[in-house]
Amino acid sequence: MATKSILLFDFEVGVREVLSHCLKDFGGWKVILATSIPEGLARVNSEPPDAILVDVRLSREAHSLQLLQELKRFSGKYIPIVLITARASWFTQQQLEEIGAIGAIAKPFNPVSLPTQIAKLLNW
User: How far is residue 30's CA from residue 3's CA, in Å, rounded to a whole number?
Assistant: First the structure.
């Protein structure tokens, strides 16, 4: 079975590094990093991932939600998107579907169990 790949979209270096290590070390997945909307779209085009993990922070929420809208328009194929946010419980399933996400994981998260949570949402 081929290794699954996840495009990780995060603006903050420290959080991006922690998430990347969690996904690689505990999930065994290939992690593709993106730090901006243009870079994320380019990565989807050049190395289409099996899934996308978007870190939504209060200070950058507009950028993250803009990325989701751009991905819905840009991508020629369906790629499941998972949000990671302190406000995960605020989203209804309908709201998640409207913005193009299949689920949301709450922050703070447990680094060891994060890949399990993601895998469950993705049915991996």
Answer: 7
* Residue 97, token pair as written in the block: 């579907």
Per-residue pLDDT tens over the stretch 30-68: 999 988 778 888 888 888 899 999 887 644 545 566 666
CB 6 within 8 A of CB 48: no
* Token pair belonging to 40: 């994320």
Question: Is residue 28 predicted with pLDDT exceeding 80?
Answer: yes
Quote the CATH superfamily of domain 5-122: Response regulator (3.40.50.2300)
- At residue 29, the pLDDT reads 95
Cα angle, residue 44 at apex, residues 1 and 81 outer, rounded to 5°: 75
- Distance set, CA 121 to CA 15, 39, 52, 68, 80 (Å): 21, 25, 12, 17, 9
